[in-house]
Amino acid sequence: MAEHLKFERFCWFDRQLRNNRYPTASHFARHFALSTKTVQRTKRGKFF
Questions:
Q1: How far is CA 39 from CA 5, 12, 42, in A?
Q2: DSSP collapsed to 3 states, the chain
Q3: Which among 27, 45, 47, 44 has a CA at the least distance from the CA of 36?
Q4: Are the C-beta atoms of 39 and 29 separated by less than 8 Å?
Q5: What is the mean pLDDT of residues 5-10?
Q6: Residue 28, class by beta-carbon neighbours within 10 Å (0-12 exposed, 13-18 middle, 19+ buried)?
Q7: Under 8 Å CB-to-CB from 48, ≥6 apart: which residues?
Q8: pTM recorded for the entire structure
Q9: Which residue, among 43, 6, 5, has the nearest Cα to 23 in the 3D structure?
């Protein structure tokens, strides 16, 4: 995965947490036009 995509996802996730929002895999998937299963499979380090 391109480094700029990882960074964009990281920054979005960080902003969510700093605003006391805790996005689910479904919310993350909708925001980045991914399947929920893809997010669930790769949530352990491959997005960041």
A1: 14, 14, 5
A2: CCHHHHHHHHHHHHHHHHCCCCCCHHHHHHHCCCCHHHHHHHCCCCCC
A3: 27
A4: yes
A5: 89
A6: buried
A7: 6, 9, 10, 13
A8: 0.73
A9: 43
- Residue that the structure tokens 């925001």 belong to: 31
> Would you tell me how many other CB atoms lie within 10 Å of the CB of residue 17?
11
Q: What one-letter code names the amino acid at 9?
A: R
Tokens of 28: 């993350």
Domain residue extents for the chain: 3-42
* pLDDT tens profile 28-37: 999 999 999 9
Residue with tokens 């689910």: 24
User: Quick one: tokens of 4?
Assistant: 């700029």
